[in-house]
Structures are given as C-alpha cells and as structure tokens.
Amino acid sequence: MRALVVRLSSLGDVILTTSVLPALKNAGFEVHFLTFKPFGEVLRGQSFVDSVIEVEKEKLKSFSRLREFAGELPPFDVGFDLHDVLRTKVLRKFLPFRFYVYPKRAFLRRLMVVFKPFKSRWLYVPELYAEALKKAGIEVRNPRPYLFVDEKLKKRVSPLVPENAVVVAPGARWKTKRYPIERFGKVVELLKKRGFSPVVVGGKEEEEAGRFLESKGALSLCGKLSIMESVAAISLSLGVISNDSAVVHMARAVKKPVVAIFGPTHPAFGFAPYPDEGAPLTKNLPCSPCSLHGKTECREQKCFEIEPETVVEKFASLIKSC
Q: Which CATH number is 2-135's, of 1.10.10.10, 3.40.50.2000, 2.30.30.240, 3.90.1590.10?
C-alpha cells in the first residue's frame, strides 16, 4: 500500500508530522511525503519515509498548475492531508484515491483569539495529526516528533558546538513573534554566568541578531548551517531556548529540553512542547492571544515582558529534571 502524506509548509509543521509517520510505516504502508522546498531536507534519510516529493511553491500556485501537478504524480492507494489549506483541498479533487484529513481546529483557534477564555482548551498538533490516521484505522500512541541524526553529520558539526552548549534561537517568521533581542542578550549573559556556552542558530535573516548576541558572549552559527546541520547542532547541545518557531520542534525531535517563548501567539494553539519535552513561557495576558500566526502589530508588546532571569531559571530547572 502506497500512502501520500501532504504537508506543504512550514518547517516546524513538517517536523511535527514525524510524530505519526512511524506509525503509518509500521502499519505496512510505503510513505511518500509531499512538501515545499526546502522543507523536505528534514525527512530525507529517515527510516519511516520512503521518498520525499519536494516542489517549488510557485508550481502549486494556481488551479491549472495544481491539476497539472496532480497528473504528474505516481499512483497511490491512499492519502493523508496533514495541512488542509486551499491548495491541498484543490489538489485532493484531482487525485483518484481517498484522503484522510487532519482536524486542524482552525475555528477553535480563531475563537481563542476573539474569546480569550477558549485558550484554556489546549490543543497539541501531534494529537490532531494522529486523529487523521485514526480515521484510517491506525492508532498512534504517545505521538512525539522524532528525527534521526546521522553520526557522520554529528561528527561534521561537533567542532562547531562547544562543551555545555545551550542553543539560543532569536528568530521567528514574523517579527512580532520575536522575544526582544535585548532580552535575549541578557539571557546569553545569564547563561554564561551559570557556566553554559550559548550558541545562536538561525538563517541568514538572523545574522544581525547573531552578531548582537556574539557581543554578549554567544557563538553565532546563523547563516552557516543547513536545516539538518542545525538539527545536529541541537542534538549535541544541552537544550534550547527559542521563540515560537521551528527550532522548538527541532529540539523536540531530537529529545532535547526546550523553553519556548510565546508572545502574541499562545501555547494553546497546539505548538507548545509537551511537559515531557520542555516548557512554554507566556505572560498569558487578558489580551492574549491577539493573533493566529503572530502577524498582529502591537506598540506595547507587554506579552514579551518575560524577564530573562525567568527564562534562564526555567531552562536550568528543565536541565536538572532530565
């Protein structure tokens, strides 16, 4: 049986699908994964994925292109749509096999933004992915993201990762989701005082933040690593402190404790680590969450008035409990 799993974006969401892919593989399916470039990098070489179909976003931009792309796909017996956006809804119409769709609970998330008491009903995305498989008769117990990191890759990256490394990730897709860089600078200084070696990861867009944190005592690897090299660096660290971004899920996937800092978004949306994976930090203000994806501009940003001492203390307590 050949299964097509669809999750086009973004990187963190693709990583979270690994919480259910092993169960699909163990149920006897060939697993073929469709995603946008460059997100397929994290799935290549994983034992629970038989092939990765990577496509440029532009190729699936229009109705006609989606129909054309569907005609180019090889035959499959079943599909799992773990994205359920307009693109994937249209794509499903052109494919001649049954799809099981994950319940993304978009309406509930929007209710959380408008009616704040709904945020007491926390979601976890791995459990929602597991519900899609359950519709096909496949049980997923204790879904957790997982990525295998090749020893050769670890060996190549290890010279860049100092002893007692703590990975710090100041980036996020939207600027409004980023814990203030000055506060991250204080986090770096406090980590250094405790004997840790802060290491900054991120893409080229985080290079400026990386340079600032280097001035505070960190080592910046921003713009120097591929996606999987970043995952390998995290796997060699003691743990991670990150904004609400893909780096949180990288840490979870290699079983490193992570402190996830939430500002305009909220842990209830489904992207917080489980208690056995780490800890979310949020001010949980009456106005929170104010945005579904963190795009909302806010002059005050009181949601980020989380003291660096609190961040570092939370991380230290996670390390002690590991």
A: 3.40.50.2000
- Mean pLDDT over 255-271 rounds to 97
- DSSP label of 321: H
- Mean of the pLDDT values across residues 185-192? 98
- Name residue 69's amino acid: F
User: Is 151-321 in the same CATH topology as 2-135?
Assistant: yes
| Tens of pLDDT, residues 195-205 | 999 999 999 99
Instruction: Report the alpha-carbon distance of residue 10 to residue 249 in Å, rounded.
Output: 11
* CATH architecture classification, 151-321: 3-Layer(aba) Sandwich (3.40)
The DSSP symbol for 62 reads: S
Q: What Rg value do the Cα atoms of the chain yield, rounded? A: 20
Write down the pLDDT at residue 252. Answer: 98
d(CA 83, CA 174): 20
Sheet of 2-6, strand order: 51-55, 30-36, 2-6, 78-81, 98-101
What six digits make up the tokens of 15?
Answer: 């990583």
Q: How far apart are the first and last CA of the chain?
A: 40
CA atoms within 13 A on the CB side of 96: 5
Q: Give the C-alpha separation, 292 to 104, whole Å.
A: 13
> Is the distance from CB of 215 to CB of 143 less than 8 angstroms?
no
Residue pair 48/149 in contact by the 8 Å Cβ criterion:
no
Reply yes or no on whether the pLDDT at 296 is more than 90.
Answer: no
Nearest to 318 by CA among 196, 181, 178, 172: 196
